[in-house]
Amino acid sequence: MPVKSYAGAQVDVEEDGFFVHPEQWSQDMAPEIARESGVPELTERHWEVVSFMRKEYLASGDSPSVRLLGKASGVPVKELYQLFPKGPAKLAAKIAGIPKPRSCI
Fold first, then answer.
1. Which position has the higher pLDDT, 105 or 69?
2. 36 lies in a domain?
3. Catalytic status, residue 25
4. Does residue 103 carry a pLDDT above 70?
5. Which secondary-structure segment (H or E) carries 54?
6. What is the pLDDT of residues 34-83, one digit of tens each?
7. What are the two backbone dihedrals, phi and then psi, of residue 4, each rounded to the nearest 5 degrees?
8. Tally of domains within the chain
């Protein structure tokens, strides 16, 4: 299992870089993960999405899809694609330290 270092901590990741153990994540890691994934800076709007993703995952045990994200997060799908251009649910999940959504390939 690959290991990455974020904010001075070692974390277990799967081959695509998603956290194996979401409890290893901290907010200090998110900006590093974002930069590594092509998002140079996390704005307040990014944080709304990242926080929503973690909250939903911790409540349901599943990473939200783009559809749910657009409906329930308060951030329209069009804006999600502007914030996370390489696929909002997948990229936001990675930054949030949760598994890749099942609906993502």
1. 69
2. yes
3. no
4. no
5. helix 44-60
6. 999 999 999 999 999 999 999 999 999 988 888 889 899 999 999 999 99
7. -120, 160
8. 1
Range of the domain at 60: 3-96
pLDDT of residue 67: 87
Among candidate residues 22, 87, 103, 104, the one labeled active-site is 104
Q: Could you give the CA distance from residue 52 to residue 12 in angstroms, rounded to a whole number?
A: 22
CATH code, domain carrying 41? 1.10.10.370
Pull the structure tokens for residue 94: 């990675």
Cβ–Cβ < 8 Å for 47, 40: no
Domain annotation covers residue 90: yes
105 has a pLDDT exceeding 60: no
Q: Is residue 103 part of a domain?
A: no
In a domain, 63, yes or no: yes
75 with 83: CB under 8 angstroms?
yes
